[in-house]
């Protein structure tokens, strides 16, 4: 699996208001981009990827909207890899790998279980000013 984002030939960026409708728009945009890139929506990684994306956008809407009126979703793919990130301007950075061990960890626990179960990776990257972050998910295709 290629994990270097700069080597992924397909990319799309979507910025949305941090509102509940962003979840649907992010998923629909992902489906459209994957289809345009020739990635079958029936690929075994696609449904979990869409669920992960939905959970990350939902978390941003629920927890970051006060400080981040917009969120950005970055989609990227290559022949053997799908990557996406959800970015907001809230400074809180969740401990992704701790979410797996939490009982009732909710959305992030689900994100991490699916990501790791598929052999993927997850990372939180801070903005340079420390006032925002992106959660990046990389999954094998």
Topology:
Blueprint lengths: L9 E8 L3 H16 L9 H18 L6 E9 L2 E8 L7 H4 L7 H11 L3 E6 L6 E8 L1
Antiparallel strand pairs: 1-2, 2-3, 3-5, 4-5
Helix pairs in contact: 1-2, 2-4
GO molecular function: ATP binding
Keywords: ATP-binding, Kinase, Nucleotide-binding, Serine/threonine-protein kinase, Transferase
Organism: Streptomyces mirabilis
Question: What can you see in these coordinates?
Answer:
With 141 residues, the chain is α+β, with helices and mostly antiparallel strands. It has one domain: Heat Shock Protein 90, CATH 3.30.565.10. It has four helices and five strands; from the N terminus they run βααββααββ. The chain has helices at 21-36, 46-63, 96-99, 107-117; strands at residues 10-17, 70-78, 81-88, 121-126, 133-140. Strands 1-2-3-5-4 form a five-stranded antiparallel sheet, with helices on one face. Helix 1 (21-36) runs antiparallel to helix 2 (46-63) and helix 2 runs antiparallel to helix 4. The mean pLDDT is 91.
């Amino acid at each position: 699996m290629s994990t270097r984002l700069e080597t992924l030939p397909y990319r799309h960026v979507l910025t949305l208001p941090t509102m509940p409708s962003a979840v649907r728009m992010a998923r629909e945009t992902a489906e459209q981009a994957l289809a345009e890139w020739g990635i079958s929506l029936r690929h075994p990684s696609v449904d979990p990827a869409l669920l992960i994306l939905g959970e990350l956008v939902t978390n941003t809407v629920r927890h970051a909207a006060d400080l981040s009126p917009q969120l950005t979703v970055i989609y990227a793919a290559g022949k053997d890899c799908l990557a996406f990130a959800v970015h907001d301007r809230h400074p809180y950075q969740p401990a992704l790998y701790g979410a797996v061990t939490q009982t009732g960890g909710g959305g992030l626990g689900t994100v991490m279980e699916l990501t790791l179960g598929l052999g993927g990776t997850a990372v939180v990257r801070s903005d340079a000013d420390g006032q925002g972050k992106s959660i990046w998910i990389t999954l094998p295709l």
